[in-house]
Amino acid sequence: MISHDILVVGGGLAGLAAALNSNPELDIAVVSKVHPLRSHSVAAQGGINAALGNNPEARDDGWEKHAFDTIKGSDYLADQKVAELMCQKAVTTIYELEYLGVPFSRFPGGVIAQRPFGGAGFPRTCYAADRTGLVILHTLFEQSVKNKVRFYNEWLVTRLVVRNGKCVGVVVYDETTGQIMPIEARAVIFATGGYGRVYLKTTNAYINHGSGIGIAYRAGVPLQDMEFVQFHPTSLYPNNILITEGARGEGGYLINSKGRRFMEDYAPLAMELAPRDIVARAIQTEIDKGNGFENEYVHLDLRRLGAAKIKKRLPGIREICIDFAGIDPIESPLPIQPAQHYSMGGIDVNVKCSSVVDGFFAAGECACVSIHGANRLGGNSLLDTVVFGKIAGEEASNYVRGSKRQDSGEKILLEEALKEKKRIDEWGKKDSGVKVHLLLNTLKTVMSESVGMFRDKKALQEALEKIRELKEDYKRVYISGKCLRFCQELINIFEFESMLDLAEVIAFGALRREETRGSHYRLDFKERNDRDWLKHTLVTWKEDKPQVSYEKVDVSKYEPKVRKY
Ligand SMILES: Cc1cc2nc3c(=O)[nH]c(=O)nc-3n(C[C@H](O)[C@H](O)[C@H](O)COP(=O)(O)OP(=O)(O)OC[C@H]3O[C@@H](n4cnc5c(N)ncnc54)[C@H](O)[C@@H]3O)c2cc1C
């Protein structure tokens, strides 16, 4: 049986940061369902935050101000000490990345360039033009290869195996051979990314199904604050490719069909650079009021930046707009609309990235530490992946040093792998039933229509009913082909199980949270309610259904105030 000291699941930024920072004397491996360089982190555009103070307008910046902006941006749901820790570590993190070889853009004189981003008091987003995720991911991958990290690519983890409160390993489907296999590990780190594809309109890659979060949930690990789903204000209409916040950071304006910079009505001070929840709702409100174009989009106008700046700072965005919309932002405004973008909630872990299960850790977008609370600031996710990926690697290494292998681990893993094989046999035996892709489309529609940016009790209840019907339909799915190598239908069946659970947990938490906070906007409860709802939602899978509990938020530093921008 394959066995490692530390098994990292996920080859994106959080996973590679974890692998690189695990103790090199240990035996470390990364499993990823796609080649690591195809992980979604590669698509990150605008940048990564740190209070370096390099921008002439940011001489008075400091990590405390970064932390305050993060906490205020989170609508005071972030745990304040954890947010502080991340912002404190941000500055050295950027220099470490630079040292490893990340080619950041530079200001004249050679210091790392920084641009303004939404909800930030100072321009503190470091970037590499509009390809920041790509350059960091390539650098960390090169370093991992140099450090001889073992990679298992195109292997999908389908189960996390836990016995007596301790993690013993995982079960994987090797896409290249069609085989099911157990992997034993003394510590497992999930860095499996977000679940954007649970929604119809999303900026996320096709691979972002959130299966890691669902697998952890079914293994008994609670999920935290899942009702908080970020919708990015500016995705290109109609295919929802992201237009980075950096485009507004560089000076882009949002304009409605009346020719007005409508952000004046919603965030008169910050305008286009208010936090994402506020800008996304403003855009959708304009469209719903009839102030959009074709009832679908408003304009993001970059023309005032001029050709030279667009070509230098936003070359990838220009390419995307020309290739996918036939529009050159140097000459014409861009049609944009909000789309699902990021998951603030995730696998419940503490500041050491460790969970309720011994030896099981999580970091990056799949985890909730919790820093982003009810609304993440742009540029803080890349930071989160690198800072907490590193912590996860270090803490998993400490854990492995002080723990023993579970004696019966191999036997348990073989049994779990057998169960998985039996499931596949069952799906393969049937020659009729339900095609999983049809269920997938229905789920996405339900989530977009009823658990989207604007929510209310009736719609959320209906969504939950529909999700539960889909769970019944799921029992009748089958595999129509016989070859199990690169079997997309099988991958979809495995991942859809998680998507159903995540959808249920999101809708379930959203229905219970009778207030508006950050990205969670209730039409029937339009105000934030700190008295009853300044708390984290925890949902645990017990007796085949979600059970909810609540946990205190750390507000030890800043007293929650009404957010104004
Ligand atoms: C278009 C776009 C642009 C963005 N730009 C920025 C930005 O400029 N700044 C910023 O701060 N944030 C940005 N974000 C957010 C940020 O990019 C992501 O949150 C972050 O990259 C997630 O990294 P991760 O390592 O957690 O996950 P990912 O990069 O998504 O990696 C997940 C990994 O897990 C693997 N995996 C998943 N499930 C399984 C499974 N079951 N078995 C095996 N492997 C599995 C995948 O193969 C992949 O390797 C952007 C997001 C989008 C959508």
Overview features:
15 helices, alpha/beta, 37% helix, 565 residues, binds flavin-adenine dinucleotide
Radius of gyration: 23 Å
Instruction: Give every kind of bound small molecule, once each.
Output: flavin-adenine dinucleotide
How many helices in DSSP terms?
15
Q: How much strand content do the residues show?
A: 15-25%
Mean pLDDT: 96
Instruction: Tell me about the largest β-sheet.
Output: 7 strands, mixed
SSE class:
alpha/beta
Low-pLDDT parts are: none
Q: State the end-to-end CA separation.
A: 56 Å
Which term fits the overall shape?
globular
Q: Find the count of extended strands (DSSP E, 2+ residues).
A: 21
Helix amount: 25-40%
Record the SSE blueprint.
Blueprint: E1 2-9, H1 13-20, E2 28-32, E3 48-49, H2 63-73, H3 80-100, E4 114-115, E5 125-126, H4 132-146, E6 150-153, E7 155-163, E8 166-174, E9 179-190, H5 211-218, E10 223-224, E11 229-236, H6 245-249, E12 253-255, H7 276-291, E13 298-301, H8 306-313, H9 315-325, E14 334-343, E15 346-348, E16 360-362, E17 367-368, H10 380-401, H11 409-429, H12 436-450, E18 454-455, H13 457-474, H14 488-512, E19 521-522, H15 530-533, E20 535-542, E21 545-552
Helix pairs in contact: 1-4, 1-10, 2-3, 3-10, 5-14, 12-13, 12-14, 13-14
Flavin-adenine dinucleotide binds next to helix 1, strand 2, helix 4, strand 7 and helix 5.
